[in-house]
């Protein structure tokens, strides 16, 4: 297949997914969001596997990529529901950090236009070891930035799912055609290369002598 096909499009799409996943992984690391970090890590591995399968004509690898894209869509839908607080979920919980830290999304304090100020505990009249952070002037709330990231992932995954199914069908058709043509070629090759064992003149004379002796004896 040439480059102007679904295979080439899927290769470009996998490369785009890798870039977007790496970008998201960086900011999730900065925010210590362990659940998304684990999901991004698995996503990167499977996308690389799908990219390898597309380049090397391995439909089984693309099948794994296709199944993962469906799961990835479900995961990102859950993240959208989490940050929009749909279905009883709350963005203020520690679910994304596996309840092992109180960190929130990196975009909460570093979003576009955000002004971050660290307030000492004494400013609140409380004597503890926690540091209070005041964030003002954000152009876009952090939850909407997370929703945008997840929406982009969903869009790329849906397009990748469609292209992956198309490429798998093309690969399977090519394999069936190859097997059919290969079978015919093998059969014709076998028919064309059957060699008849030649009968040597010596063997013919020996057979005639044997028959003459039998006639003389009779």
Automatic annotation (TrEMBL):
Give the Pfam families listed for this entry: NKAIN (PF05640)
Signal sequence span is: 1-21
Q: Provide one Gene Ontology cellular component.
A: plasma membrane
Q: Which InterPro entries match?
A: Na/K-Atpase_Interacting (IPR008516)
Q: What GO terms in the biological process aspect are recorded for it? A: regulation of sodium ion transport
> How does the record classify its membrane topology?
Multi-pass membrane protein
User: Where's it found, cell-wise?
Assistant: Cell membrane
Does the keyword section mention Cell membrane? Answer: yes
Q: Which family does the record assign? A: Belongs to the NKAIN family.
Task: Please give the name of this protein.
Answer: Sodium/potassium-transporting ATPase subunit beta-1-interacting protein
Identify the coding gene. Answer: NKAIN3
């Amino acid at each position: 297949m040439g480059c102007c096909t679904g295979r080439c499009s899927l290769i470009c799409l996998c490369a785009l997914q890798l870039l977007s996943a790496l970008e998201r992984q960086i900011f999730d690391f900065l925010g210590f969001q362990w659940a998304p970090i684990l999901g991004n890590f698995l996503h990167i591995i499977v996308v690389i596997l799908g990219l390898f399968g597309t380049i090397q004509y391995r439909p089984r690898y693309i099948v794994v990529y296709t199944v993962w894209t469906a799961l990835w869509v479900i995961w990102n839908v859950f993240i959208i529901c989490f940050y929009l607080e749909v279905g009883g979920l709350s963005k203020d919980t520690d679910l994304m950090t596996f309840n092992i830290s109180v960190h929130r999304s990196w975009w909460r304090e570093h979003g576009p236009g955000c002004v971050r100020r660290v307030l000492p505990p004494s400013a609140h009249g409380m004597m503890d070891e926690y540091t209070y952070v005041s964030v003002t002037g954000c152009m876009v709330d952090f939850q909407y930035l997370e929703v945008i990231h997840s929406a982009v992932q969903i869009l790329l995954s849906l397009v990748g799912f469609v292209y992956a199914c198309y490429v798998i069908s093309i690969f399977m058709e090519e394999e069936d055609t190859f097997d059919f043509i290969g079978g015919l070629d093998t059969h014709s090759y076998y028919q064309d290369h059957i060699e008849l064992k030649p009968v040597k003149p010596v063997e013919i004379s020996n057979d005639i002598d044997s028959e003459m002796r039998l006639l003389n004896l009779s």
